[in-house]
Amino acid sequence: MAIPTGVACACGRVHEPLPTKIIIRAGAVESLPILAGELAEGVPLVLFDPVTHRLAGENIARAFIRADKPWERLVLGSESAPFEPNEAALEAVRATIKDKQPGLVAGVGAGAMNDLGKFVAHEAGLPYISVATAPSMDGYMAPISALLIGGVKVTYDTKAPDGVIADLDVLAGAPMSLVSAGFADVVGKLTSLRDWELARVLFGEYWCRAVSDHVEGIASRLFAAAGALAERSHDSVRLLMEGLLEAGISVFHVGSSRPTSGSEHLVSHYVEMRRFNEGGRPPAHGHVVGFGMLVIAELAEKMRGLRAEDVRKTRFTPADMEQVLAELRLDEVPGNFGKSKFDAEIRDARLPVIASRWDDILAVLEKVPPAHKIREGLARVGAPTNLRDLGLDPETAMDTVLHARYMRERYTMLDLAAELGVLEAQAANIVRKYA
């Protein structure tokens, strides 16, 4: 189902068309000089890290030579110190923008580079082009940037890129680990959409059927194409890349990441923050999202076995905030932390509402795919389906299952499972099953 743009939607809003120019084809990287010239006057500043510079730097340089257009490049990070979107990278780009006075910024890479590029371009008031090198995550189009500030992942409002270049030759040649991470990130919408719908049922949050159906259709088609994607044909890679971009476009249409980021993403956020603060590198974002889907599917199955009478009888004790902060090695509470979720009184007041709307909640839970189906899909593209392959030890996995819900104030199925006593009862079983 297409999202209606420029006219009133049944949800009560008008979804404006996104002005981003998107080029997806073989050899698309050669279009960078032309697209940059269409979007801005002045010399473009092109950001790389060492890996993406080796991958695409030469082709981009040749493209600018053929177009007879000047450009500037900045390679961030080094072979011994991999690029991260942190304060050091931020200051390096700011200094280069001040010195070179470019007319546009282009970021060549995937998640981290795109986040940094969008942020600095937005800050400087410059157009931004994302040159995708891997179909690995859904943040290319999102009007937000996640940076590592003080070792903490902080999300900032920016804007969607003015242009996206996705070269199918480059994307199809990306490591299968990145392709499978992108696959998991897109199919993760099959649980995030249920979180969005749950928020509508419980709290009357804004919800758009057209956007929800559109995103679900994309995720379902990609899930069905898992076998073809394992062969990395251009058609399947195009389907994956379109899914990643459409996910970001849906965020633009509704003004919220609700359609694309739910409980499965909280699992990934927890693991990422914990690993960074321990001085390590987390697994690929999409791969942890895949594990998050498995967690949600297991919890949803257990919750589907409850009745309204069971809901009314449940007792709940929230975790200790200091304990969760200690796990994450945080000295202070992040601004977007789910502080209200530590308040048992808030939950107690919500319990009668949950019980009174249990039939509607069950209808939402019924739409969560079964865990064995999710696991089969992940396996077909070579994504991790157990903690060992994901690189998570049982202790970290246990903490993640129990405490990922505190990463945001946003209410999800993780919170519902916790407040019904299912999360604590099933956490150990889930960790053992996927060890």
Keyphrases for this structure?
alpha/beta, Rossmann fold, Dehydroquinate synthase-like, alpha domain, globular
What's the topology here?
Elements: E1 21-25, H1 32-39, E2 44-48, H2 50-67, E3 72-75, H3 87-100, E4 104-109, H4 111-124, E5 128-132, E6 144-149, E7 152-157, E8 163-167, H5 168-172, H6 176-187, H7 189-203, H8 209-224, H9 226-230, H10 234-254, H11 263-277, H12 285-303, H13 308-313, H14 321-327, H15 344-356, H16 358-365, H17 371-380, H18 387-390, H19 394-403, H20 413-419, H21 422-433
Parallel strand pairs: 1-8, 2-3, 2-4, 4-5, 5-8
Antiparallel strand pairs: 6-7
Care to give the gist of this entry?
This protein has 435 residues and is an alpha/beta fold. Helices cover 55% and strands 10% of the residues. The protein folds into two domains: 21-173, 3-Layer(aba) Sandwich (Rossmann fold); 179-433, Dehydroquinate synthase-like, alpha domain (Up-down Bundle), CATH 1.20.1090.10.
